[in-house]
Design brief:
Elements: E1 7-14, H1 20-30, H2 51-56, E2 63-69, E3 72-78, H3 86-95, E4 98-104, H4 111-123, E5 127-132, H5 141-152, E6 157-159, E7 161-164, E8 172-175, H6 187-203, H7 206-213, H8 220-232, E9 237-241, H9 250-260, H10 264-267, E10 269-271, E11 277-279, E12 287-296, E13 300-309, E14 312-313, E15 317-320, E16 326-328, E17 332-336, E18 339-343, E19 345-346, E20 351-355, E21 365-367, E22 385-391, H11 397-410, E23 415-418, E24 425-429, H12 432-444, E25 450-453, E26 460-463, E27 466-475, E28 482-492, E29 498-501, H13 513-525, E30 533-534, E31 537-545, H14 553-570, E32 573-586, H15 591-600, E33 604-611, E34 614-622, H16 629-637, E35 642-652, H17 655-672
Parallel strand pairs: 1-3, 1-4, 4-5, 5-9, 6-9, 26-30, 29-31
Antiparallel strand pairs: 2-3, 7-8, 10-11, 12-13, 12-21, 13-20, 14-19, 15-16, 15-21, 17-18, 17-20, 22-24, 22-25, 23-24, 26-32, 27-28, 28-31, 32-34, 32-35, 33-34
Helix pairs in contact: 3-4, 6-7, 6-8, 13-14
The structure holds guanosine-5'-triphosphate (GTP) and magnesium ion.
């Protein structure tokens, strides 16, 4: 098996359309994996091989790839840059030793760049940057490198290759300290960074520093070793340049991967979920993280693992530490898109697909034995968009549920639940394209068709005053009758629901009090204004009447409901709506449109700040206004904005809107009657 020092494992990430898939294609071509470089518009790249991706002309799924270069084996993942598919991208970052971020040489840093940069920050993942598209009109290497340095660190982001010529006349790139034939107009720039790199090397080691200051030349090995540490610590981010489509700068980037990227041996250790760190060795007990699973039409379920430690072998028995299942490794495949190649061993740094596992999914840990620690778990982002749904054919809810359960196992950014208050079945995801994919998969693969609608907003009701209710339930039907009478008072109670039994003299016997409380609890599920859950009410039952023969639990429940309803009407009830806390990130130029739209949506802007070259807007907005925000933001910003939101609190619905909602509800009640 390959020496661990010769393995490189990285993830290619960045903003949508920056050219990640094209760059991966160029690397596969340059390294001889493919004889012809495909392109995204021609729908023939190795990475975007699914019909969905080809229709969209952009990646949807993370695609593991591999190639060899200069005696090293590369395992890398092409990820989607589009925000709705961030689940795939996040997971890939957990599987990699370093992130290669692709930045568009025309637009520079974009929302998607910061998104992955920040994810890498959280994981302490080393980074490298490739400035792509430098053959394009209006590309400007110097503007982009300046912005990168401004935002991600001047002394940190260091040019390693520099373009010669620009736009149409881009001809090649030169390496700042390996190339001798630097054009004169680039010399000052190149020398500046050559010195910077040398300084970094010297700083990494006191002895090297002294020798360097004494004017001694450092050897190639010393140069690489000196940089490795700085890159691995994140103190240095090498920046490469070129054009993926024109195969400019690709060879030098591949050399950079060999010379500068850490091998799993350099990384040396890996983190487990409980914070333990374990040293990496091919002879240690084997341990791997499942970072992706998919259903292959021919092979069935494929689980992609990143081996962190030890060596997995075919026919080996392993334990899934997450589900507790014993699994047998029947076959292992290295994959280049849909091209599979069987292997019999997989060591640290390798990414392979396992077939035919029984009970293993994304985010599980596989171990060969002796291990108790699960791998560090992938944190998936929470859904930002929900559809309510029913099945097109009656009675297929269970079939849909089973299929959705399967889908959530491989894509944890999908959520499927029944809402407690609105009772609707909800399908949550990262946006309409993501959800559209899920729905299409359900139809095509699982043969269940969904009918979707905008989810009902879980409005609530509460009171702002006090009220009193008296209700007598009396019925004489045939033999024995029904009788109960309940008197109660209600008042607003910010701490939630409170019930007290203040009946004196046994006017309602103790054994009927639980029925009274139950009656009230039932009324609180369907409030009198709009049939919503009632909250924050204090109820005191203080009097009533009973009949020794005709009173029953049922009669008291009915009387309590009547009394509560009457009291609610007196107590100035109001409607409440959920308010979301929203964080929106957009380029400067869209600020006006975004804030204008938020005002329109009854939003309250809580703060605006510049962050990493983009604008961050924090706002509180009623949930009902945010139902289609994923789509709206995309069209307002041409896909250059992103947002996150989470529930914050309930707040009173403005009177005019409340009146509308109440009238609508009352009309449906009358229809029902
Ligand atoms: N001129 C030029 N076009 C490029 C270059 N690299 C990529 N493109 C084109 O830019 C478009 C987007 O490239 P992709 O490789 O799909 O970009 P991506 O980063 O994978 O995009 P997502 O998968 O959506 O995140 C395609 O039409 C490519 O052909 C380049 O270096 N120069
Ligand atoms: Mg792509």
């Amino acid at each position: 098996m390959k020496d661990v020092k010769k393995i490189r494992n990285f993830v290619v990430a960045g903003h949508s359309g920056s050219g990640k898939t094209t760059l991966c294609e160029a690397m596969l071509f340059k390294s001889g994996v493919i004889g012809r470089q495909g392109s995204v518009p021609q729908k023939n790249t190795v990475s975007d091989y699914t019909a969905d991706e080809q229709d969209r002309q952009g990646s949807i799924y993370a695609t593991p790839l591999n190639c060899n270069w200069n005696d090293c084996e590369f395992y890398f993942i092409d990820t989607p840059g589009y925000g709705e598919f961030i689940g795939e991208t996040s997971a890939s970052l957990y599987a990699a030793d370093i992130m290669l971020m692709v930045v568009d040489g025309v637009n520079g840093i974009e929302v998607g760049s910061n998104r992955v940069w920040n994810l890498a920050n959280k994981l302490n993942l080393p980074r490298c940057i490739f400035i792509n598209n430098l053959d394009r009109e209006r590309s400007d290497y110097y503007r982009v490198i300046e912005q990168i340095q401004e935002v991600y660190g001047k002394t940190r982001c260091i040019p390693f290759t520099v373009p010669v010529g620009k736009e149409n006349s881009l001809s090649k790139v030169v390496h700042v300290f390996r190339d001798a034939d630097v054009p004169q107009d680039l010399e000052a720039f190149v020398m500046k960074y050559r010195e910077h790199i040398m300084d970094t090397i010297a700083e990494s080691d006191e002895e090297l520093m002294t020798r360097y200051l004494d004017g001694e030349e450092l050897t190639e090995a010393e140069i690489s070793a000196g940089l490795h540490q700085a890159i691995q610590d994140g103190a240095m981010v090498p920046v490469f340049a070129g054009s993926a489509i024109k195969d400019i700068g690709i060879g030098k980037l591949l050399n950079g991967v060999v010379n500068l990227f850490p091998s799993p041996a350099d990384v040396g250790k890996f983190s487990q979920e409980d914070g333990t760190e374990t040293a990496i060795s091919p002879d240690a007990p084997a341990e791997a993280l499942v970072f992706k699973s998919l259903i292959d039409p021919f092979v069935g379920q494929l689980n992609f693992i990143r081996v962190f430690n030890g060596t997995f072998r075919t026919d080996q028995e392993v334990t899934n530490l997450t589900t507790g299942t014993k699994e047998k490794i029947v076959a292992m495949l290295t994959m280049n898109g849909k091209t599979q190649k069987p292997v019999t061993e997989a060591g640290p740094g390798m990414m392979v697909a396992l077939t035919k596992l029984k009970n293993t999914h994304t985010n599980n840990t596989l171990a060969s034995g002796g291990e108790e620690h699960e791998m560090r778990k992938i944190k998936f982002p929470a859904p930002v968009m929900y559809y309510a749904f029913t099945t097109a054919k009656r009675g297929e809810e269970d079939k849909a549920a089973a299929a959705l359960h399967k889908l959530t196992e491989s894509d944890p950014t999908i959520e499927f639940k029944r809402h407690e208050e609105t009772h609707e079945l909800l399908l949550g995801g990262m946006g309409d394209q993501h959800l559209g994919n899920v729905i299409r998969k359900l139809k095509e693969v699982y043969k269940v068709e969904l009918v979707t609608s905008t989810p009902k907003i879980p409005y609530r009701e509460t009171i702002t005053g006090k009220g009193e209710g008296h209700y007598r339930h009396k019925k004489q039907t045939g033999g024995h009758g029904q009788f109960a009478e309940v008197h109660l008072r209600i008042a607003a109670n910010p701490d939630g629901f409170e019930f007290s039994n203040d009946v004196v003299g046994g006017n309602i016997p103790r054994n009927f009090i639980p029925a009274v409380e139950k009656g009230i609890a039932e009324s609180m599920v369907n409030g009198p204004l709009a049939g919503c859950k009632v909250e924050n009410v204090k109820v005191s039952v203080y009097d009533g009447k009973y009949h020794p023969v005709d009173s029953s639990e049922m009669a008291f429940k009915i009387a309590a409901r009547g009394a509560f309803k009457e009291a609610m009407h007196q107590a100035k009830p109001i409607l409440l709506e959920p308010v979301m806390e929203v964080k929106i990130v957009v380029p400067d130029e869209f600020m006006g449109d975004i804030t204008g739209d938020l005002n329109h949506k009854r939003g309250r802007i809580m703060g605006m700040e510049a962050e990493e070259g983009l604008q961050v807007i924090r706002a509180e907005v009623p949930q009902t206004e945010m139902a289609k925000y994923a789509t709206e933001l995309r069209s307002m910003t041409q896909g250059r904005g992103s947002f996150e939101m989470e529930f914050n609190r309930y707040e009173a619905v403005p009177p005019a809107l409340a009146a509308e909602l109440i009238a609508k509800f009352q009309a449906t009640q009358e229809e029902d009657e």
